[in-house]
Amino acid sequence: MGDLQIVDKSLRSVFVGNIPYEATEEKLKEIFGQIGQVLSFKLVYDRETGKPKGYGFCEYPDQATALSAMRNLNGFEIGGRTLRVDNACTEKSQLELQS
Question: pLDDT, tens digit, for every residue of 40-49?
């Protein structure tokens, strides 16, 4: 995958933090699907324990939908926790997207 594809994917993706540990990818796809078509939702798991780390990434077909998700779902409450929805284009998340 070329650097341009990675950048394009990160512009169409959002970082989702503060996810309750009991939340499923299906439930999160449902919530984020209210904004637009979700291409993929990936929860990040701890390699050693196999437990969710409490964050993940949602990929949309275009940047406009990703921006809409950041505007409309940042602060959304699920399972007593407030989601943090931000641009996936941070250095740490770029590394996650590459792996």
Answer: 999 999 999 9
97 token code pair: 């997207």
Q: CA–CA separation, 61 vs 24, rounded Å?
A: 21
Average the pLDDT over 58-82 and give the result: 96
Task: Report the relative pairing of strands 13-17 and 40-45 from DSSP bridges.
Answer: unpaired
Give the domain range for residue 53: 9-96
> Does residue 29 form part of some domain?
yes
Position 1: which residue type? M
Q: Please, are residues 39 and 94 in contact by the beta-carbon 8 Å criterion?
A: no
Distance between CA atoms of residues 7 and 59, nearest Å: 12
For residue 3, being part of any structural domain is answered with: no
